[in-house]
Prior knowledge:
Strands 1, 2, 3, 4, 5, 6, 7, 8, 9 and 10 form a 10-stranded mixed β-sheet that branches. The termini are far apart. The chain has 161 residues and is an alpha+beta fold. The longest helix is centred in the first third of the chain and has 33 residues, at 2-34. The protein contains 1 helix and 10 strands; from the N terminus they run αββββββββββ. It has one helix at 2-34, and strands at residues 46-53, 62-69, 75-82, 87-96, 99-105, 108-110, 115-118, 123-128, 138-145, 149-158.
Amino acid sequence: MMEEYMAIRTRYFGILACAAALFLLAFATSIAKAGTVATPQDSSPSITQAIVRLAVIPGRPAAGYANITGGSLQDRLLAVEIDGAARAELHETSHVDGVMKMRRLDALVIPSNRKVLLRAGGLHLMIFGLPDMTPGQTIPMRFLFENAGTIEVVAIARASN
């Protein structure tokens, strides 16, 4: 009986020792990763509050807005693709001599760890050829960045009040 007890005890401590070794290995690996330099995946921008403001007059362009927060590295937004739309363009609104003007941008710099707002009266998207939609519908969008690649989001359609 004592020999059986000793065998079970030895086996138990062997299993316990293996489990402890695996735990220490996992812990050491996580500590090693904590000090590494950010990879492009870690430095990707994030996009929140994406909406599409539907056109007042059917057939006219819609507008797109979102909050873009830069990752740990500066990046450039090159384009936005929107399911069902003919095209989307980056635009900037400015006031010149009391007149509101809009111009198309080829790209938009997204500074590291800074927020860039796409809003009415400033930077925004002009969306051409969007199919008929109703407020509340969702619209898949793909933001194409120079370094981060493609980031997919879902925007919500809003009325053009």
